[in-house]
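tool_call: predict_structure(chain=1)
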Amino acid sequence: MSNNCRLFLGVLIGVVLIGIVPVHAGSPKDIQNQGKEMVKDAEEMVAHGGMGDAKAIVHHCAEVAKHAEAILKALPSADEHGKEAAPHLQDAVKYCKRVAEMGDKVDPGASLNPATKARAAAREAMKHLAAMKDSGA
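tool_result:
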């Protein structure tokens, strides 16, 4: 693994572990807003990939992973829709880690495949997150 890739993975892990945008008290509205931002980044990631911009793919995928991790931490354990969204959020993180491992020096077409899978996972997770209702807590 190249030094640049190691550096990027270190930064990605640091962002995920330390720089997560907090979702306040796991409220469905806040989780849904975070999910919308995640999907927006996923869409931009694939759009840039179609234009051959590998750096943008890596950047937006790191943002998707950051949002997905924050949502996973904020999901209420008793919410069925949240439970259904969790595996898709985990998939988005997994595919974005693959993009990070590839780095921005590879052919953008190579990183576009896992990026597209991350977008599909983010979209599917958002379907479940959108169905969450506020329990009044």
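agent: The chain has one domain: 3-10+27-130. Proceeding to next step.
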